[in-house]
Amino acid sequence: MSGKNAVAISTELHLQDIQHRMERERQLGPGPPPACRISLIEQSKYNSTLCAKERPSLSPMYYGFMCHEQHFSSTPLAELRPLALSAMQVRSNNKGHYLLCRVVTPPSWMVGTILCVEDPAGDVQNMIVFNYPGTRRTKIHALQAIFPVGSVLAIREPLLVPLKSDNATLIRVYSPSDITFVRSGDRILADVTWAYPAPAPAVIPRTADEWDELGGSHFETGRFLASAATYTSALELHPSEPFLQLQRGRAYHVLEYLSAALADATAVMRQRGISDHTRSKAFYLAGCAEYGLSHYDTAILQFKKALYLSPLMPIDQFKLWDERCRGRVRETRGDYDWEAMFKDAQVPGKRIDVAEFVGPMEVQQMPYRGGGRGVVATRDIKAGELILVSKAFAASFPDELYGDRVELQNSITGGVESACSSEVLSQIISKIFGRPELAPLVFGLYAGPSYPDPAHNYPLRVLSDHNVRSPLVQELNLDTQRIDHIFNFNVFVPETLRSVHPLDISSHGDGNPSNEIHLFGNPDTTPPNKDDLPSALFLLPSLFNHSCDGNTTWYNFRDIMIIRAIKPVQKGEELTLPYVQGSSTLSRHERLKKYGVTCDCSLCLADREDGEEACRLRERLLDSLGSLRSPGTSPADIRSFLCKVEGTHSALRGPIRPASGRVRYELAIAYEIMARKSMDASFRIQAIAACMAALEAYGIMVLDRSMWGPVGSTLGGDEYLPISAETRNLIVEGAKYCTQISLSIVSAFVLMEDIPRARGWARATRILDNIFVGCGDALFKARHESTTDVLIQSGVVLAD
After folding, report:
1. In a domain? residue 463
2. Which positions ≥6 away from 72 have C-beta within 8 Å?
């Protein structure tokens, strides 16, 4: 057993133990909660001390659940009755009640924020708050800014559960909206007497400058919610200080609480008696917020006002913002700098700053899909045409993770979700918490059969709320369990567009021909570690229905999704894309279970005609495809392997056989290796033939299979094109390989010094790339820079 497998099994057993314990909790009846004030307070202080210490170099992994039962309250606090800890029922949601409590020790964090609270009678209880924004991987001093000692909280309909031993209990709060921070003058505190004196809080700043220093320290260390909370506390004591409100607005902006940032900026603008410099800062903050809200023309006006009021604002800074805004406006019309996006996407941790584009598509009700929704073309669409550019609502990549990680067992699929998935769920909740006007866009997505079908119209209109608000006040009732389900049924694994490496035609190397040839990856034979998979929620792309044989393809520039048509689409025809890929309908169907859908596309129907036994054999064969890449494998071995794969297809199936396409390209590579070893051009001819056959397996019609002779006027001369421009039979899986295979043919003909054919296949390569990727010459050159220059020196131009 490998170490990796041992860790995976240990994780699974640990999560199963937690799940069994939760099942046991549901079966046990209610009972009185135990209480021990001194021991709980001392233990909480000890945990807080541990939390304050530096983490070990190896970050700990925590485990939780996704899509399991999570309670949240939808009853307004004013309609609930107070409840003492001594009266709370274990394993009950305590419906109709709220718990008034006070934080008595510094908080700590482990999967959620852990608080030790007391009620007015002096009874104490530990409480864990899941999903609260700004608390994940947060240092204790920042946690104290959000949940300071002495804070009075009202918990709506709290859930009390037993721990591993029934001798201890814990309050679980799943939704941040169930927590209300109670201020000293609130009516809820009328006639409330506390049995114990208020716990001594941490040192509280006295002056506005001291508050600014504390809030600024949180901001500089990346604890932005703690920073916003600190400035909110400062404003309660110093409401007439505009710089405190601007600083809070700055924290809001980084948190992407854009409406709140704009509200703070607007409030400062309207203040009387402030300096032009301060007002200029307010206009600048407003411009940044409007930019984030995609109001680019308004953002330019705000930046102009900031520049007019303050000559200290560098003109170069204004020009930069002006250029960015105008660039975003162009992008809303589909005019992108694709090369810059591609290069930015190769930078670890980089997020791509572009505007969204919605092309000839709209969301409609689909009667033949049971009344659900889908996306249809609003006009005739050509193959290769841009359909949609969408920014992720939330996204996480492995190169962005740091500190403590949380893995989640998915209660729907039974599998374990990656740390990136856990991070995305946290981002979704945080974004809705900070911008509640976006909630309808998320809750308007499909949440599975356990929830009512969403409205047919989408996207819903977003009405921004520009009222000044506290970062810890949430008027929206957040159903975190529904968010889990929405994520489960709509999650994407971003596939960032990478450089392409065909058969290498350069003369450089160590003398071993096989080392000069780049093999394309095989995602089915070597599945990536789930911890290496990014995760993202996209809104409009989630409305596209699945088809393994879809008429669109998608790829990413990190958190930006591009959707293009790969086939001609008629007006009113549904636009579909593949959620998953696999060697046959069996593996695809298994992966589609997560989304609760089945597929009856042409590929799946053809696989079913082949028979289940044949499909299982095909799966096993392709799972062993990596074995063909060993040094001792000969073309004869691969031909034998190809015969076995071909034998899993019905004789009546037709030429579209993507499984065979992958094996045929492996055969082409083997022939090219033989050609270089033996200096025998006949092997290269066989490599070209194998590449052509691979293209046909992906639905491309090869018109000219000749290997020598003239390609003059009878074949079109300078317009010679060896493939058909008809794309109705293209399959989406070809997007990964076809350009690479075609470019390998170009390379082979260059090595054979057949420049006319190389040029024709170069034109074919560009046609295929325009269909599957698009984006023009600059991006094509950037992605194929390893071969473009060499081919140009040989007289073959791949881009105009």
Report:
1. no
2. 174, 175, 177, 178, 477, 478, 479, 480, 481
**486: part of which helix (H) or strand (E)?**
helix 480-490
Handedness of CA 526, 529, 532, 538 (dihedral sign): positive
For residue 213, tell me if it sits in a domain: no
Domain span including residue 543: 524-793
Q: For the segment 141-174, what is each residue's pLDDT rounded down to a tens digit?
A: 788 889 999 999 999 999 998 876 556 788 999 9
What is the structure's pLDDT at 21? 57
Model-wide pTM > 0.85: yes
- Structure token pair of residue 377: 């073309």
Nearest 5°: CA angle at 792, between 786 and 795?
145
**Number of domains within the chain:** 2
Residue keyed to tokens 């392709």 = 622
Q: Is residue 446 part of a domain?
A: no
Burial of residue 75 (number of CB atoms within 10 Å: 0-12, 13-18, 19+): middle
Beta bridge partners of 410: 66
Contacts of 789 (CB under 8 A, 6+ apart): none
CA angle 556, 557, 561 (to 5 degrees): 40
Last residue of a domain, one of 162, 189, 216: 189
Beta-bridge partners for 780: none
**Strand positions, DSSP E, 747-796:** none
Residue 419 CA: distances (Å) to CA of 59, 132, 136, 447: 12, 17, 12, 21
Using alpha carbons, list the distances in angstroms from residue 563 to 341, 355, 389, 498.
Answer: 15, 15, 7, 16
Q: Are 176 and 429 in contact (CB under 8 A)?
A: yes
